[in-house]
From TrEMBL:
One of its GO terms (molecular function) is uracil DNA N-glycosylase activity. Gene3D superfamilies: Uracil-DNA glycosylase-like domain. The lineage of its organism: Bacteria, Bacillati, Bacillota, Bacilli, Bacillales. It comes from Peribacillus cavernae. It comes from the Bacteria. Keywords: DNA damage, DNA repair, Hydrolase. This is Mismatch-specific DNA-glycosylase. Residues 5-162 form the Uracil-DNA glycosylase-like domain. InterPro entries: MUG/TDG, Uracil-DNA_glycosylase-like, Uracil-DNA_glycosylase-like_sf.
Length: 175
């Protein structure tokens, strides 16, 4: 099973970071391709994208200022299959990517992803007090997996803070 390509470029508004690709994403070469994953619906309903995109359109989101990567590149059925060594290597690689590309906001798609990345165990949803890579904002959102037990409205509400955050960042640059 092949890993899927990152969709990244310099100075993205938001870089979305997942655990790792699903088997379906590995098969298709597109992020969040599992039909049970609610990622594309969440982005649209939270006001992040103007329409509900399909996983085949993931690269188009670069034009909107949004990119995609994962802490681990190997596709698996579940995150439980990821090895500690893969997390360690992925954590260091992700830090390098963030420092190089300098996205404004890094949205971790799942608390567990951020816990693996930051080493913190207890953390709130949303903007984190301190970012791992300076000059960026770490934002923690629920996983978009269909296995998540949170109500969809709650998940969307957390993600809906992202457009507000971007507006405030852009407004701050115009002062």
């Amino acid at each position: 099973m092949n890993s899927i390509s990152d969709h990244m470029n310099d100075h993205l508004d938001i870089l979305f970071v997942g655990f790792n690709p699903s088997i379906r994403s590995g098969e298709t070469g597109h992020h969040y391709a599992n039909p049970n994953n609610r990622f594309w619906r969440i982005l649209h309903e939270a006001g992040i994208t103007p329409k509900k995109y399909r996983h085949e359109e993931d690269e188009i989101l670069l034009d909107l200022g949004y990119g995609f990567t994962n802490i681990v590149s190997r596709p698996t059925k579940t995150a439980e299959e990821i090895l500690k060594a893969e997390y360690k290597e992925g954590r260091e690689e992700l830090k390098k990517k963030i420092a190089h590309f300098k996205p404004k906001v890094i949205c971790f798609v799942g608390k567990g992803v951020y816990q693996q990345y930051s080493g913190l165990k207890v953390l709130p949803w949303g903007v984190q007090e301190h970012s791992v890579v300076s000059g960026t904002i770490d934002f923690v959102a629920p996983s978009s997996s269909g296995l998540v037990r949170m109500k969809m409205e709650e998940v969307i509400k957390i993600y809906s803070h992202l457009p507000e955050l971007l507006r405030s960042l852009k407004a701050g640059k115009n002062d």
